[in-house]
Amino acid sequence: MSLPVNLVVLVCLVYVAILFGVAFAGDWRARKNPGGWLSSPLVYTLSISIYCTSWTFFGAVGSAARGGLEFATIYLGPTIVFVGWWVFLRKLVTVGRVHNTTSIADLISARFGKDPTLGALITVMALVATAPYIALQLKALTDSFEVITLSAGTVSTANFEIRPNYVSGFWLAAGLCVFSIMFGVRNIDINERHHGVIAAIAVEAVVKLAALLTVGIWVVFGLAEIPSQVFDHAPVSLTNPQDAFGLRWVTLVFLAGAAVICLPRQFQVTVVENSGERHLRTASWLFPLYLFLISLFVIPIAVAGLDLLPVGSNPDLFVLTLPLARDHNTVAMFAFLGGFSSATSMVIVSSIALSTMISNHIVMPLALRFSLVPVASPQTVRSFILGVRRISILFILALGFLYFRLSGSSDALATIGLISFCGVAQFLPSLVSGLYWRRATHGGAIAGLAAGFLIWGYSLFLPSFEGSFILPAHIIEHGPFGIEWLKPQALLGLTGYDPLVHAMFWSMLANISLLVGVSMFSVPTPLARFQATLFVDVFRRRIEDEQRVIRRSARVGDLKRAAERILGNEEAMRLFQSANVRPNTLTASDALISLVEQRLAANIGAASARSLISSVVTSETISVEELRQLAGEAERIRAYSAELERKTRQIERGAQELARANDRLREIDAQKDEFLSQVSHEVRTPMTSIRSFSDILLKNPDLDGTQKARFLRIIQDESLRLTRLLDGILDLNQMENGTDDWVATSFDPEATLDQAVESCEAFAQGSGVKIKRSGNAKKIEVRGNSDKLAQVFINLIANSIKFNDNPNPVVTISSLSRNGAYEVRVADNGPGIPESDRERVFDKFARGSIDRTVGSGLGLAISRQIVTKFEGTMLVTTSKAGGAEFIVRLPVHRRKAA
Amino acid sequence: MAGKRILLVEDEPNIVESLRFILEQAGFEVDVISDGNAALASVIADRPDAVVLDIMLPGMNGFDVLRAVRGDTKLASLPVIVLTAKGQPNDRKMAETIGATAFITKPFSNAEVIECVRSHAGS
């Protein structure tokens, strides 16, 4: 089935009429109510979605059907930019707002000293790079128009192929031209922003999203009985992720990301039409969401198209041919309107952006230089500029049509779009360095841009004509004069790469290295240095700083006439009134000159405004001293804040360390207090006995001899206990402070153990305890102090003897060496130590472990200290006999020679 | 003078011996217990006329014993003289709060102990 031509044309005209209505209503509302919904973040975001042109609308499906997941890169790049490059976008938009930027050419030329050459170069580049893109819209529109008006039989014919219809293409271009002129060029003050156009664009954004979603939903839920069937028929190659993340994939993501910033029309809606950071904040998540939605049904539509339509059908038109093949004319018509919306909104905004660039950066500088601007009346100047812009739009669409005609348009939509992307990506290095790199100079920017542009033209743009324009086919095939390494698509012998990757690599390499290289070796003009400061430090500098640096003088009359020429009488009068210029003032102040220049820049670009102002300024000095101070200030502030940050971090670290040390000291202090309290207790106990018994002895001289002797013995025992206690404290203190007379030697621990056992024999016999010695470790040495180790062993053995309440008390001492460790076990068959106390017994004055009348309460604490000093370990467990078993492990220093 | 029974709760054998000696010399009947739990049982069962209570004890410590004693209304007026080697002001305050009749720091003077027991147990 198909639709009658007249009906389609009628629907398009009605749709266009509605758009005009929206645009006029938008302008009218914006004048009445400047803060209304027209300047809402939603409308701003929808206007950014002109990124999705008919290429996206029709071509994404085509790209998916041909190359699988590759189509996703076109959405991925902008998503990454809006989500991840938020800081850059914010700076870019702020610079644009502060400097009343009119276009990307204006912004870059203003940054590099308001240089007209740079503006003109960028304008030419943008024109050439946009031509394929406009051709792409023409092609998409004519193709879709052809398809929707053709008979159904033709659509389903296997070898059906649309031959480009240049006639309808021409009329379409003409229609778009009229459309764009009527829409875009009604006033010349960029500062006022195109509220009406933006409103119409927003409506078109909604229409194209709704149309594609409708087709998608129809395909998934209306075509197949079960949605999953759509995917059952998907060719494996379509969703094969293997091609993803390859070189071409990365290149495409990068190009798409660069394009969403650098395409003149994207710059127009994102930066020029921006009215506040709040809008950008919303767009940073809403625009990626829009991209997500519009790409949601691409794969299902592609799958359904490949599955249901005859082999050889043009996948770029699946969005239309699918509903047509199933006689869903309403869906088809809606889809056509979606594509129409995508194409028209792109062409309108592109031509507004490009015509502004042509008039501001090519025509105005020439007109000013050769005094071509009519001076008769201000009104004629305005109409001159408007005329220039109208003719520019004609010229732009003519270029697009020319490309459409010359390229043969046999290419897939996506390929043509990518040529444009690669072209405008050349702006990115200058743009980024302009905002972040103070040292980037005008010469560097020109060299980089020109080189990148030439390589792009030679290796990608011209070859796209396949020999029918400038570059003949044999050069593309074999290089100029047969020089292989100059082959456009294999420069310097770089073969085997995708032409796009190849062109991107060489053009960006040349662009960036020349930008950096030339910048390093060239000196910027004072004005360029000043502009660099204003741009790079946009959040710290105010544009009013200009008056500090640039001193100019001009007659008020001349200045006013210059303003009137561009702004018109009324507007110029308002400007001068707002500046509070008294009627009889003759000489204009720096502030007034700056104000007029900024106001003019909003209309004709910074470079042209500057030349115009310069023509009435009688003297101008740029204070190098002030400039240096300004730059120095920024540098100092930056250095100072970095230093401050560093210091703060240092202080924070110090504070943390102090806090930690303080905590540790507090802990140690608490331990000392605890220790002191324990020592006090341990001293008071024997003291109590001594005092009490000596008192008794003094008061009772007539006590009998045995009792007297017993009491004296107790006094003596308790005195000895005190002495031991003091010795123990001193020992421990020395061990802990490392001030003891520790002499480390290598010695045989077995000998030490034998000595210790021997010295305990008498005590054991006296207490009726049997000592068993078993096992032995031979031929090893440990390193440390032999006397101290003996002290440890004696302490353990003595404890086992003292606390053993078994009727047949036995202490078993065993030793062995294994795994590089010397191990001694002292086990008894006494009461043992409950699990819960096993760690505590090694504490000082641990209760329950020591009989205070014989020990100091410090023996095990000291022993553990000693073992730790041997880098060994000491622990207690239950012996086989149910008593306590102390285990000492020491690292073996070396094996004794046999 | 005979008949006043003193319960001595103390785990240091030498101190027990000296206290027993001076208290008996002063005419008191002395029972000795070295463990907190047993001490509480003995107070409840035997109703001594006064208790001399050490704080650092195995099992239940002296403060807990005192708290339990004071928790029993029948024992609320029982004189309890707290003895401690931990001479810190905090311990004294703690002892007073939970109802110690008197507080004596080790090392003590024999006369002070006798005087104290006599005045609270009655002679």
The CATH class assignment of the largest domain in chain A is Mainly Alpha
- Uncertain stretches of chain B: none
CATH fold title of chain B: Rossmann fold
Name of the CATH homologous superfamily of chain B: Response regulator
**Portion in beta strands of chain B:** 15-25%
How would you explain this protein's 3D organization?
The complex is a heterodimer of chains A (898) and B (123). Chain A has 898 residues and is an alpha+beta fold. Chain A has five domains: 5-425, Sodium/glucose cotransporter; 432-539, no CATH class; 542-622; 645-737, Helix Hairpins (Orthogonal Bundle), CATH 1.10.287; 745-895, Heat Shock Protein 90, CATH 3.30.565.10. Helix content of chain A is 67%, strand content 7%. In chain A, the strands form three sheets. Chain A has a five-stranded mixed beta sheet with strand order 5-7-8-10-9, with helices on one face. In chain A, strand 7 (810-818) and strand 8 (821-828) form a beta hairpin. Chain A is elongated. Chain B has a single domain, classed as Response regulator (Rossmann fold), CATH 3.40.50. In chain B, 45% of the residues lie in helices and 20% in strands. Chain B is built from five helices and five strands, in the order E-H-E-H-E-H-E-H-E-H. Chain B has helices at residues 13-25, 36-46, 62-71, 89-97, 110-121, and strands at 5-9, 29-33, 50-54, 80-84, 102-105. Chain B is globular and about 30 Å long.
